[in-house]
Design goal:
Blueprint: E1 6-10, H1 14-23, E2 28-33, H2 36-42, E3 48-51, H3 57-61, E4 70-73, H4 79-92, E5 96-100, H5 104-112, E6 117-119, H6 121-134, E7 138-143, E8 148-154, H7 164-167, H8 169-173, E9 176-183, E10 186-190, E11 202-209, H9 210-215
């Protein structure tokens, strides 16, 4: 069971609104923006939505407390609002503050005043699209530290009819298969047995370094 968290989303542009909608499926979301139209547009899709000037500490602290688990500052247009919102959230005592940045300088300022994590939505999207264009078999990936990734990989033709033991991907490629998504019939196999035989409809969930994963293209 997923723990019930309390999340504050500040800034309801395209990124902030979509994030708020997705998170509200599992968590208690408070969505804030100065623009009443943006607040009204999302009010029926999140637990709470309010029109608020987050540059004012008294106003923000009246609705956001240290009891919130995380906050996301999704204000990319106004540096002043972005910086003040992050500063106020830190002062309030929100333990995890994620902030969207427009540039490296903006990111440096946000980190210096208390942002736990910096988000570059356009950059991260570009990296994802580039990875999928470089390797068409790469269906999805999650970047990790030190160039490691968790990926969904459509099985290359050379894998069909072979077991994971025979493929020996860990030794030959440095890639470790942590799960199999079977499409026919639909089934998720976590930590598959080494004797699991790959079918054309299987998707491998694997972890490894980017350069090792991309080497699979040669198959």
């Amino acid at each position: 069971m997923i723990e019930k968290k309390y999340i504050c989303i500040i800034g309801l542009g395209e990124f902030g609104s979509e994030l708020a909608r997705e998170l509200s499926r599992q968590f208690e979301v408070l969505a804030l923006d100065q623009d009443a139209n943006l607040v009204n547009a999302i009010s029926d899709e999140v637990q709470r939505a309010m029109t608020l000037d987050v540059r004012d500490f008294a106003s923000l602290s009246s609705v956001v407390t240290q009891d919130f688990d995380e906050a996301v500052v999704s204000i990319g247009e106004s540096l002043e609002s972005s910086i003040l919102a992050t500063l106020h959230l830190k002062r309030i005592g929100v333990p995890v503050i994620r902030a969207k940045a427009k540039s490296q300088d903006h990111a440096s300022i946000l980190r210096s005043i208390g942002a736990s994590d910096i988000i570059f939505p356009e950059r991260e999207t570009a990296q994802r699209v580039a990875a999928q264009m470089i390797n068409p078999n790469l269906l999805d990936f999650i970047p990790l530290a030190e160039d490691y990734q968790v990926i969904d990989l459509a099985s290359p033709n050379a894998f069909y009819g072979k077991s994971l033991r025979e493929l020996n991907l860990r030794k030959d490629f440095g890639v470790f298969v942590i799960a199999i998504k079977e499409l026919v019939p639909p089934r998720f196999v976590f930590m598959p047995d080494p004797d699991f035989v790959i079918k054309p409809s299987d998707i491998l969930v694997a972890i490894g370094k980017e350069q090792d994963i991309l080497r699979l293209r040669e198959l």
